Structures are given as C-alpha cells and as structure tokens.
Amino acid sequence: MVKKIAVIGAGALSRIFCTQTQKLLSDDYRIVAVMARHFEHAERLTKDLNAKACTDLTELLAEKPDIVVEFAGREAIKDYAIDVLKNGSDLVIASIGALADDDFRHRLTDTARGMNRKVYLPNGAIGALDLMQTFALMGDAEVTIGNTKAPRSLEGAPYLQGQSLPTDKKTVIFEGSVEDAINGFPKNVNVAVAAALASDTLREATVRITSDPLSSENIHRIVLKNKLMRAEVTIAGKPDPANPRSSTSTAWSVVALLKNLASPVSFY
Ligand SMILES: NC(=O)C1=CN([C@@H]2O[C@H](COP(=O)(O)OP(=O)(O)OC[C@H]3O[C@@H](n4cnc5c(N)ncnc54)[C@H](O)[C@@H]3O)[C@@H](O)[C@H]2O)C=CC1
Ligand SMILES: O=C([O-])CC(=O)C(=O)O
C-alpha cells in the first residue's frame, strides 16, 4: 500500500527530500502535503508534487499522513511533534537537536509509546548511528564530536552574538558539552545530538566546532571508544547551495530511511 507523507518545512532540505522521494520512491510513498510558515513557500514546493500547501498543522494532519517528516527547526518540532503522534502518524525528525531537551525527549517518547507510533531519527549529515547504539549497549563509551564548517555556514549562530569569523585562519570557536553546543549552534550540530543520543553519552560527549575558511565541505568526525572497540567516523558533505549550514546529504538520508522502511529487507 502506498503510504502518505506530509512534510513540515519548505526550505533547502525539504525541497531535495520531496523531489527525490517523488522520483525514486513513488511505488511506496506519495507526498500529500507540505507545510511552511509562509504559504507561498509551501506552494512553490507543492506545485510539481500535486500535494496540498498549508501553513497550519491541523490542515496538514487533515490529510491523514502515515508519516510526517520534519525539516523545519527545533522550535517547530517542539511545537508540533506531540500533536503529530496523537494524530496517529509516525514521525521523522531532522532537527534532532530538539531532543537534547530532556523534558521534550521524555514527552515525545511517552507519547509515541502511548499512541503505538514510531519516531525515526535519521542519520542526517552523518552515518553509523547503528554502530553508536552498539557502543551505548556496551557501556562506558568515550565520545568526541568534531564539526568543521566554513565561516558562512556558522555565522548567525546565537553563540557568536553577531560576530564575524576570521577569513584568514582556521579557528576553534567552541569546545564544550553537547547541550551547550546545540544551544549555541542550533542549526549546525544536530549531528552532535544524534551521535550523543545514539551512543548514550548526551551528558559526557564533548563537542569541538572549528571554522575553516578554506573548507568547501561540512566535516563531521566522531571518535568513539570503549575497552573493546574503537571507531572513527568522518563524513564530509557539501553544504546545500540554498542553505550552507545544512549538508545536502541530510535530505538524502531521509529518503534512504523511507526506502529502508518500505523494503522487505532492511539494512541496519
Ligand atoms: N540531523 C541532521 O544531521 C541535520 C539536521 N538539519 C536540520 O534540518 C532542518 C531543516 O534544514 P534546512 O532545510 O536546511 O533549513 P531551511 O532554513 O532551509 O528551511 C526550514 C524551513 O522550515 C520552515 N519553518 C520553520 N519554522 C517553521 C514552523 N514553525 N512551521 C512551519 N514551517 C517552519 C521555514 O519556513 C523553512 O521553509 C533544520 O532544523 C536543520 O538544523 C540540517 C542538517 C543536518
Ligand atoms: O548539515 C550538516 O553538515 C550538519 C548540520 O547542519 C547539523 O547537524 O545541524
């Protein structure tokens, strides 16, 4: 049976996700609605999809989506997630940074359990969340997360308080906890929260953010170790032309997730 997908957000990643899902997964999925803050943004995206454009969650959920996919931001997902699950839809969250908030994460988990729904956290701009969960089960993981981006992909973050970053040298601009990292750089280190949650090191993992004027990629390097295993995961993704903070590959990772969910044989 073809499943109905509704999408929250009509920005850089949403556009790639919608286009590729329609192109590659039309046997299994149909995009029925896209919601954005501005109607014309949603409408621009739905034009070629034969889907409904809206600005209101009630309108989105009226389409009775099987799965709601979020590409909107951590405030948006905090506002909408519980209602989506209560509506009986499963949920895919790109703005995983929202789950660094213990209260929100617990409410999300409890509601999904109560409604017998699933919340899917995609690999996003990184990968190996499965491996990180193995570390979590084995216990006592030491995890460090390094993120390197060009200044234009970092500027505007609340931590920088309007400051410009040097354009002539590579600079470490942040070192600290996952919670401080996502609060300071909410549009840059969703990957850090994803890695820390998967490895169960939300309080212990450390994050280092580097601004590199010569970098043409968003580079994420996660190092995990315990007594029995060591892993280094480095992923370098091209910044999306429409939003250089985000790696284009993030949208593709959600298409891959949906493909996996629909397939009789799943990778894990
Ligand atoms: N998990 C991961 O690895 C990654 C996650 N992300 C996150 O994915 C999200 C989407 O990224 P982009 O598409 O690049 O962002 P974008 O800024 O290009 O697009 C965001 C869209 O969401 C809409 N939006 C914002 N608040 C809304 C609300 N309350 N209701 C409805 N629509 C709302 C905006 O109007 C815009 O259309 C961001 O939160 C970003 O931080 C990005 C890259 C990697
Ligand atoms: O897209 C990326 O490279 C990573 C990113 O913005 C995030 O994790 O928020």
UniProtKB/TrEMBL annotation:
Associated pathway: Cofactor biosynthesis; NAD(+) biosynthesis; iminoaspartate from L-aspartate (dehydrogenase route): step 1/1
Aspartate/homoserine dehydrogenase NAD-binding domain boundaries: 9-122
Keyword vocabulary terms for this entry: NAD, NADP, Oxidoreductase, Pyridine nucleotide biosynthesis
Residues involved in NAD(+) binding: 125, 190
Entry's EC annotation: 1.4.1.21
Signal peptide residues on this chain, from the entry's feature table: none
Active-site residues, Swiss-Prot/TrEMBL: 220
Root EC class: oxidoreductase
Oxidoreductase recorded as keyword: yes
Superkingdom of origin organism: Bacteria
SUPFAM superfamilies per record: Glyceraldehyde-3-phosphate dehydrogenase-like, C-terminal domain (SSF55347), NAD(P)-binding Rossmann-fold domains (SSF51735)
Pfam family, one: NAD_binding_3
Catalytic activity: L-aspartate + NADP(+) + H2O = oxaloacetate + NH4(+) + NADPH + H(+); L-aspartate + NAD(+) + H2O = oxaloacetate + NH4(+) + NADH + H(+)
Segments crossing the lipid bilayer: none
GO MF terms, alphabetically ordered: aspartate dehydrogenase [NAD(P)+] activity
Domain Aspartate dehydrogenase: 168-255
Note: The iminoaspartate product is unstable in aqueous solution and can decompose to oxaloacetate and ammonia.
Function as written in the Swiss-Prot or TrEMBL entry: Specifically catalyzes the NAD or NADP-dependent dehydrogenation of L-aspartate to iminoaspartate.
Family membership noted in the UniProt record: Belongs to the L-aspartate dehydrogenase family.
Name the UniProt record assigns to this protein: L-aspartate dehydrogenase
Organism annotation: Parasutterella secunda
Gene encoding the protein: nadX
